[in-house]
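Contributing new records

If you add data, match the layout below exactly. Sequence lines come first and carry their own label; structure lines follow with theirs. Keep one chain per record. Anything else will be rejected by the validation script.
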Amino acid sequence: MRDMVRISKQQRANSLSGKDWLRYSISIWEINKSKEDRVDHPAVFPVELVKRILFCFTSEKVLVLDPFMGSGTTLLACQELGYPAVGFEIYEDYIALAKERLGMYTRDIRIIHDSIENA
């Protein structure tokens, strides 16, 4: 028992208000796709989905790792929220697409043209 880590009642999993937590913690989220969500990739998901997950499960701006970056949706959400992020992708076409979507990305956003297995 002495080796167990005690979690203070003051530690929080996120920084959402009670009202926002209720809104984001319901079982079904209504998310409208935006123009930036329409890209040529077989597994596209809305940027808003990543933002909500980050809001619900992080309490500070942590480093986000995307091992299968694809078109860069996760990195785009991180860029918009100010989270540092690293994305791995093996296909050059998707790397080019992600760079196009990110525009002039900052040093906090990094794209690695390699498999996560080699990280």
